[in-house]
Specification:
The structure is a single chain. This protein is an alpha+beta fold and about 280 residues long. It folds into two domains: about 1-130, no CATH class; about 140-280, no CATH class. The chain has helices at about 35-40, 70-80, 140-150, 150-160, 195-210, 270-280; strands at about 15-20, 50-55, 60-65, 95-100, 220-225, 230-235, 240-245, 250, 260. The strands form two sheets. Strands 5-6-7-8-9 form a five-stranded antiparallel sheet, sandwiched between helices. A four-stranded antiparallel sheet has the order 1-2-3-4. Strand 7 and strand 8 (about 250) form a beta hairpin. Helix 5 (about 195-210) packs across helix 6 (about 270-280). It starts with 12 loop residues before the first strand and ends in a 5-residue tail after the last helix. This is Integral membrane protein.
């Protein structure tokens, strides 16, 4: 972990870092924390990990896994505030060095060759690579929900100003109660299968989470406002993003790039509050 003034082929020149903890992990890696860890060949350590992404002296991409979560968290917080921070974990905290990057990184280390995959050696794990944004699948669906959570106000404003022409942009359905749609105008029967069948299934599975807790990290809660929390939840084929004081949006594997709004209705608030109570939260 070093600067690039005197290039050392064996050093890691850090570009960025992310947390991999039960409450905060790159959802591109899985629906929950154990799944995200498994995708990298890691045990689901309760305290979590930090993922440090950088280049070696030859320019090759590497992801270094460390167990010093606090150090990585401080570095990320400093960078988010526009402050410089030299992230240099102790070698004793290094858990694994994985070839490639699991996430797209827009920057490169100065005075090094362009980022490239390292030459594979016998026994190396598969090279990590970002997903293809042009495809649609579970990882893209989860990342879409993450994007809505980050840009909630913009999505909420778009929903408020929508014309009601289709489920992704139109009137929300109240499907959080007994499974009956409260707004039939959000789906055209001539268009084929009702996409809100998938939404009903997702909400039913969420209610099941309250009875039998899912793997840790399936339901996560973060700060939204002083009086509300932002919820993110995932399951087989679906993702949900909601605010405890507002409505919800659902994305489905079966409905590529469609965002299906769910009206607040009479029963959604209680479901969201119950999910928030059992969700994991950043420390």
């Amino acid at each position: 972990m070093a600067g690039t003034d005197n290039v050392d082929d064996d050093a890691l020149y850090v570009l960025t870092a992310v947390l991999l903890t039960p409450a905060q992990f790159p959802t591109v890696l899985g629906d929950d924390y154990p799944a995200a860890c498994a995708s990298l060949g890691l045990e689901a350590y309760a305290e979590g990990y930090g993922l440090v992404l950088g280049q070696d002296g030859t320019g090759a991409r590497w992801t270094v896994v460390v167990d010093d979560v606090s150090l990585v968290a401080v570095a990320i917080a400093s960078w988010d505030c526009g402050m410089a921070y030299d992230l240099s974990p102790d070698e004793r905290s290094v858990v694994a060095g994985l070839p490639g990057w699991p996430l797209a990184v827009a920057t490169a280390a100065p005075d090094l060759p362009a980022p490239h995959d390292p030459e594979p050696e016998e026994g190396d794990p598969p090279v990590l690579a970002p997903l293809d944004a042009g495809e649609w699948g579970p990882a893209q669906r989860r990342m879409g929900a993450d994007a809505i959570a980050l840009q909630w106000e913009a999505w909420r404003a778009e929903f408020d100003g929508s014309s009601g022409d289709k489920p992704a942009e139109g009137a929300a359905q109240d499907v959080a109660g007994d499974g009956q749609a409260g707004d039939a105008g959000a789906w055209d029967p001539e268009a084929g299968d009702d996409p809100y069948d998938g939404v009903r299934r997702a909400l039913a599975e969420l209610r099941g989470y309250l009875k039998e807790p899912p793997p840790v990290g399936r339901v996560r809660s973060t700060f939204a406002t002083a009086d509300a929390r932002m919820l993110r939840a995932d399951g087989p084929g679906w993702s949900l993003v909601a605010r405890t004081d507002d409505m919800a949006f659902v994305l489905l594997d079966d409905e590529p790039r469609e965002v299906l709004p769910v009206a607040r209705g009479p029963k959604l608030p209680a479901l969201l509050e119950a999910l928030d109570a059992m969700a994991v939260r950043p420390s």
